[in-house]
């Protein structure tokens, strides 16, 4: 397993959201990135957590964090464990009542929760080898993507999150 950080959340050339995970010891432009395509709500949730933005009501991942805390559980780490036919799989490792539990999750949900609990994020070596790409994004481009997405978050209406 390789510990990673969220290097960015961006839009690909088709307008799909993608989260970019990068090894902790990597140098931007000189490493591998793991792109995982995610939904727009998950992308927003991850960016809200990374930016430390306030929302008028808790998002789903805030609710999950609060529920775990209320029950005395803690998120130890999240792991992107495998890829099968282009679908990524993750696990949330939680300690509750003295026992360690592994909970199956989508990577986007696992990363959104980790971003709220300061839990470390890990990717299996095999996943990074199979699905990782060379980091050809410059730091300036990554910052521009984050800035563009931050502007999007500022313009989101809380009613957009109502079911």
Which key terms come to mind for this protein?
163 residues; Bifunctional nuclease domain; eight-stranded mixed sheet; 5 helices; 8 strands
What report would you give on this structure?
The protein has one domain (2-161): Bifunctional nuclease domain, CATH 3.10.690.10. It starts with a strand and ends in an 8-residue tail after the last helix. β2 and β3 (32-38) form a beta hairpin. Strands 6-5-4-7-1-2-3-8 form an eight-stranded mixed beta sheet. By secondary structure, the protein is of the alpha+beta class. The chain has helices at 40-51, 60-70, 107-117, 125-131, 139-155, and strands at residues 2-11, 17-23, 32-38, 74-84, 87-96, 99-105, 121-123, 133-134. Residues 1-135 form the BFN domain. InterPro entries: BFN_sf, Bi_nuclease_dom. Pfam families: BFN_dom. GO terms for molecular function: nuclease activity.
Q: Can you give the mean pLDDT?
A: 85
Report the CATH architecture: Roll
**Biggest sheet architecture:** 8 strands, mixed
Which CATH class?
A: Alpha Beta
SS-derived structural category: alpha+beta
Summed up, the domain count is 1
**What fraction strand?**
25-35%
Question: What is the element string, with H for helices and E for strands?
Answer: EEEHHEEEHEHEH
Q: What is the share of helical residues? A: 25-40%
Give the termini distance in whole angstroms: 37 Å
Query: Remind me, CATH topology?
Result: Bifunctional nuclease domain
Sequence of strands across the biggest β-sheet: 6-5-4-7-1-2-3-8
Please, how many helices? 5
Rg computed from alpha carbons, rounded to a whole number of angstroms: 16 Å
Could you give the count of β-strands?
A: 8
Uncertain residue segments: none
User: What characteristic shape results from the CA principal axes?
Assistant: globular
The CATH H-level superfamily is Bifunctional nuclease domain
């Amino acid at each position: 397993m390789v510990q990673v950080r969220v290097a960015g959340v961006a839009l690909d050339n088709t307008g799909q959201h993608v989260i970019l995970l990068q090894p902790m010891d990597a140098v931007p432009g000189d490493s591998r990135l793991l792109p995982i395509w995610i939904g727009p709500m998950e992308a927003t949730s991850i960016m809200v957590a990374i930016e430390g933005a306030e929302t008028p009501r808790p998002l789903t991942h805030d609710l999950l964090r609060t529920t775990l805390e209320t029950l005395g559980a803690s998120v130890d780490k999240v792991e992107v464990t495998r890829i099968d036919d282009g679908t990524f799989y993750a696990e949330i490792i939680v300690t509750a009542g003295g026992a360690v539990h592994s909970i199956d999750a989508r990577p986007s949900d696992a990363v959104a929760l980790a971003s709220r609990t300061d839990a470390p994020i890990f990717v299996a070596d095999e996943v990074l080898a199979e699905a990782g790409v060379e980091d050809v994004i410059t730091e300036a481009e990554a910052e521009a993507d984050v800035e563009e997405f931050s502007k999007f978050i500022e313009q989101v209406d809380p009613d957009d999150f109502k079911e």
